[in-house]
Design goal:
single chain, two-stranded antiparallel ribbon, 6 strands, 62% helix
């Protein structure tokens, strides 16, 4: 009885640490290593920029992991949230408000200087203390709505059909952004000037600003904590049921459509925030660089670490994104620089070896659960339910037969 009964989620905090030392060690490495690492190099701009880049992709990968890892749907159109969040953030930052001019009779108006070098004079409505939080929330909310709108017509689709539809919708949106210069700047994107840069506590945020580095790290920790809470909640268990067998989940009373839409919305929200952070890091909302290959890259991060595993997703992202930056430098000994286009070839080789020797990923999902203690077994035995009575009677009859 004690060996057969499992109670998921009944670990205490210290029991969980003792049961999963590898996962606990990895979380400690992330929580301590990322904020402390720049200090060893005296906040070297290059190292800090690469780690900041990795942090942003960790947030994006955690968002994709909700749909791919927790819900079990192959999403190939995640780049649409990345590009939409980037565009929304850039539009909010460059938006200016010109007050009314009594001498000329001009009324007050809002302007978006996109696709032009002329910068109109006026104040920036979102450049107030805490305005960056509002921008991030707007970018996430727009992408959450986009995720729901995309999810409604795809609720009945699974497997390859869902993947093809999400890929097609992402490509349609990408072409729309690319050919709408008045809104997104087209192939040139929306460039952030010095006056457009967001600031917090009187400091402009750039790719090498220490405050922006730690602010992104704070958002990463907040995202990890939220994902852990979701995974161990009723919502996470519903996603796990849908992933295992959608028909069985529906017959067990799980509202599959509702929980799928929630997954799409949360995934889109996180993707929108990641896209907004990408705009601030790059100083440019370059839609032409946010194509379907970004979806493939983030999906590779999730698969490499282990689908559904939060620490695995973080590890896979760290390896692939860091490797991409390392390959920009000449290889040691042979002094050969790997072309930018060849990076995906190396990613593919890594995934081929992974599927061959460790298909579950580097840090696969570990289901919470333990065998009940002796006093818990006695407590269960005192409960007079038909199911337990049936099981004990069956066990006694089997022992008598023997």
């Amino acid at each position: 009885m004690a060996d057969s009964v499992r109670q998921p989620g009944t670990y205490t905090f210290f029991e969980r640490i003792r049961a999963h030392p590898l996962v606990t060690g990895f979380y400690l490495a992330v929580l301590v290593g990322i904020p402390v690492f720049p200090c060893f190099y005296k906040f070297d701009h290059n190292y800090m920029s690469v780690l900041l880049y990795v942090e942003i992709y960790m947030i994006l990968a955690l968002g994709l992991n909700i749909v791919v890892g927790m819900t079990g749907l192959l999403d190939l159109g995640y780049a649409m949230f990345l590009s939409t969040g980037a565009v929304v953030c850039a539009l909010c930052l460059v938006l200016t408000h010109a007050p009314a001019d009594a001498s000329t009779g001009e009324a007050a108006r809002y302007m978006l200087p996109v696709g032009t070098t002329d910068v109109s004079e006026g104040s920036h409505p979102f450049h107030f203390p805490g305005g960056l939080f509002v921008i991030l929330f707007l970018a996430g909310s727009v992408c959450a709505l986009l995720g729901v709108l995309r999810g409604i017509p795809t609720l009945k689709l699974t497997g390859d059909y869902y993947a093809i539809v999400t890929l097609g919708l992402a490509e349609i949106l990408f072409l729309f952004y690319l050919n709408t210069e008045s809104l997104t700047g087209g192939a040139f994107g929306i460039k952030l000037l010095l006056s457009d840069r967001p600031e917090m506590f009187g400091e402009k945020l750039y790719w090498d600003t220490p405050f922006f580095y730690y602010f992104t790290f704070f958002l990463l920790v907040l995202t990890i904590a939220t994902m852990l809470r979701l995974q161990n909640s009723r919502l996470g268990r519903a996603w796990a049921a849908i992933k295992l067998d959608e028909t069985a989940a529906r017959s067990s009373g799980v509202n599959v459509s509702k929980y799928k839409l929630i997954a799409f919305a949360i995934s889109g929200f996180v993707g929108g925030i990641g896209g907004a952070l990408m705009t601030i890091w790059m100083g440019l909302a370059a839609v032409k660089d946010l194509d379907v290959w970004q979806s493939i890259l983030i999906l590779c991060c999730v698969v490499l670490g282990g689908m559904g595993s939060i620490p695995g997703t973080l590890l896979g992202t760290f390896i692939l994104i860091s490797l991409g930056e390392v390959l920009r430098e000449p290889l040691p000994l042979i002094e050969l620089r790997v072309p930018n286009e060849a990076r995906f070839l190396i990613y593919g080789l890594i995934l081929v070896f992974l599927m061959r020797f460790r298909p579950q990923g580097l840090l696969p999902l570990v289901r919470e659960g333990r065998s009940p203690k002796e006093d818990e077994v006695k407590q269960i035995a005192r409960i007079s339910t038909p199911l337990f009575t049936l099981s004990t009677e069956t066990a006694h009859s089997e022992e008598g037969d023997e």
